[in-house]
Amino acid sequence: AGTISWGPITAPFIVDGTNSASVSLDSTKTSKYVKFTSFNFSIPTGSTIDGITVDITRRATTDANAIKDSVVALVTTNATTTSKADTSVFWPTTFGTKSYGGSADMWGRTWTPAEINSASLGFIISAENFHTVSQRTARIDGVTITVTYTIPVVTHTLTYIAGTNGSLTGSASQTVNDTANGTAVTAVAHT
């Protein structure tokens, strides 16, 4: 990342047409990272994380051919992912949303529900001014993270026992998924 700091971050980081963060960059300069955290997830324990999508609503001021991503990554307490910066696209001059990752994109690592649920889960971005003469400003309106996950299948064992004067027809021991029904078991009285 660069050496130019972002201005004060205004919470909440929701898409509402106002700036949550901005940085003015002299020509050919790169910003430091700005970090967005506290996404307040509550992924159930035991779930499998399938993918992460980050949507960022951002714009550049004045010139449509000035600001580009420098670094785009996810961070946790002990890790930073590989950057997903799209260095081929300039930021628009009106707020527009750019998606990174996807429902099956793990950002180069395995995630646990505890990491996703942690307040330290964050998104970092650094911007670069490619204008060769003038200062330009990068502005971020909001950041949304969507986590796609699979809840573990909960199973139950059904056990049927016949009394001393009877028997059962059907499977007396069955394993069924949560919310599913077992197969029919009939009690037969002995005469």
Largest sheet: 4 strands, antiparallel
Structural class: mainly beta
The proportion of residues in beta strands is 35-45%
Spans of at least 5 consecutive residues with low confidence: none
The percentage helix is under 10%
Q: How are strands sequenced across the largest beta sheet?
A: 1-7-3-5
Count the DSSP helices: 1
The radius of gyration computed from the alpha-carbon positions, rounded to a whole number of angstroms, is 26 Å
If you average the pLDDT, what whole number results? 90
Number of DSSP-assigned strands: 11
SSE succession: EEEEEHEEEEEE
End-to-end separation in angstroms reads 85 Å
General shape? rod-shaped
3D structure, described in words:
The chain has 191 residues and is an all-beta fold. The protein is 3% helix and 41% strand. The chain has one helix spanning 113-117; strands at residues 21-25, 34-37, 48-60, 67-75, 96-102, 122-129, 136-150, 155-159, 166-169, 173-177, 186-189. The mean pLDDT is 90.
Task: Provide a concise account of the structure shown.
The protein has 191 residues and is mainly β. Helices cover 3% and strands 41% of the residues. It starts with 20 loop residues before the first strand and ends with a strand.
